[in-house]
Design brief:
Length: 123
């Protein structure tokens, strides 16, 4: 009976270690971003240059999400997601282009807030 209990305890510990090892992926952190808005009234896209660092113990695919939000209404007017390969100790530069819908082209850059998020695992 004792050997069965010991076996179960060891098995549970090994499974726990295996699960923890599998979860050691990247921990993406947005270090910085710069926004280059288009000329007002044009159909040119917003360009957002994002610097993402991996502060986790492993590597893998992360998801980078950039939103353009109308400051007055809080409504997201454009959204772009991009999968990025982020290996251990990497810092990467990612350029994200967002097309502004025609209905929002009369907004000035002062009317638009940019939100940037990076996460793992990919949802």
């Amino acid at each position: 009976m004792r050997s069965i209990k010991r076996f179960i305890v060891i098995l549970v510990l090994l499974l726990g270690a295996l699960v923890l090892t599998a979860c050691l992926g990247p921990k993406p952190v947005v270090r910085d971003y710069a926004v280059q808005p288009p000329a007002q009234g044009t159909d040119e896209p917003y360009q957002v240059d994002v610097t993402v660092a991996n502060e986790g113990p492993g590597g893998g695919q992360i998801e980078l999400e950039v939103d353009l939000v109308n400051k007055q209404s809080g409504v997201i007017i454009a959204q772009q997601t991009q999968e990025v390969d982020l290996q251990k100790d990497n810092v990467v530069q990612v350029v994200v282009m967002l097309d502004v819908p025609e209905s929002a082209r009369d907004l000035t850059p002062d009317d638009i807030k940019v939100q940037v998020d990076a996460h793992y695992p990919i949802e």
